[in-house]
Amino acid sequence: MTDPASDTTAFEAVEVVIPSDPAEARSVQDRIELSLAASDASERDIFCIKLALEEALVNAIKHGNQLDLSKSVSISYQVLRLSFEIRITDQGPGFDPDDLPDPTAIENLERPCGRGVMLMRHYMSDVEYYPPGNSLRMRRDFKPKQA
Amino acid sequence: MSGQPRKRLEVEELGDIAVVNFLDKKILDEQNIQLIGEQLFALVDNDKKKKIVLDFSNVDYLSSAALGKIIALNNKVKKEGGKLVLCKIKEDIKEVFTITRLDKLIKIVDDQQAALQAAS
């Protein structure tokens, strides 16, 4: 018998390929938010995922694919009862996430960009990049709701 | 219809201080952020405001691109010898400023009264 409370129960598992259009990314984000609301994700979890997702998709569309509509972004995600996981891959050249200047260093505080990856790492339980750096997987674990 | 950009900010003038309220709950969309940036920068470049208070009471979400515009505004105001103060930031959003250490760069206070004092 399947345990309905099992974390392997996917509320939603989706694979989608979108053009490098922020409006298309927005509709995927809206769909994810609806699905998260049906899981055990708290308001805090949803806040964190929304922020990280925004950063990751902007990076893929704007920095990876340079807003080139002929290039696409592949997205696959799973909303489970106790976690959310997503993989996002763009068609850009990639980058080395370990070679970014520290945005919290005094000399970089006045720089207006370069905080997205840091925010993703803060708000998600795990963020992993795959060479050449145009693909990432990130996950956030939820605390089980009290019965 | 003309292409007049939609107003993203509400600006109240209290003496020589411009108090800015954001009309968006989510400062996420690239296009909105661009407009917000232009409207904020116009306060300094066109309206010659040097003392600016940003009231975040309406804001539930913001991205690093929005942070970038606030940093650029801070740089602009500083260059003019003015002051930028942020107030009424919800706890979740305040955390974004803390972890990025922007609370060390930009003055952040709890309420508008304190912001007006800090800006004057």
Can you tell me about this structure?
The complex is a heterodimer of chains A (147) and B (120). With 147 residues, chain A is an alpha+beta fold. Chain A has a single domain (10-141), classed as 2-Layer Sandwich (Heat Shock Protein 90), CATH 3.30.565. Chain A contains three helices and five strands. A five-stranded antiparallel β-sheet of chain A has the order 1-2-3-5-4, with helices on one face. In chain A, α1 (22-37) packs antiparallel against α2 and α2 packs antiparallel against α3 (116-123). The two termini of chain A are 21 Å apart. Residues 1-5 of chain A have low confidence and may be disordered. Chain B has 120 residues and is of the alpha/beta class. Chain B has a single domain, classed as 2-Layer Sandwich (Transcription Regulator spoIIAA), CATH 3.30.750.24. Chain B contains four helices and seven strands. In chain B, the strands form two sheets. In chain B, strands 1-2-4-6-7 form a five-stranded mixed β-sheet, with helices on both faces. A two-stranded parallel sheet of chain B has the order 3-5. In chain B, a hairpin with a 2-residue loop joins β1 and β2. In chain B, α1 (30-45) runs parallel beside α2. Chain B is globular.
**CATH class value of chain B:** Alpha Beta
CATH class of chain A: Alpha Beta
Q: How much helix, percentage-wise, in residues of chain A?
A: 25-40%
Q: Give the integer mean of the pLDDT values of chain B.
A: 94
Topology of this structure?
The complex is a heterodimer of chains A (147) and B (120).
Chain A: E1 10-19, H1 22-37, H2 43-64, E2 72-80, E3 83-89, H3 116-123, E4 126-130, E5 135-141
Antiparallel strand pairs in A: 1-2, 2-3, 3-5, 4-5
Chain B: E1 9-14, E2 17-22, E3 26-27, H1 30-45, E4 51-55, E5 61-62, H2 64-79, E6 83-87, H3 91-99, E7 107-109, H4 112-119
Parallel strand pairs in B: 2-4, 3-5, 4-6, 6-7
Antiparallel strand pairs in B: 1-2
Helix pairs in contact in B: 1-2
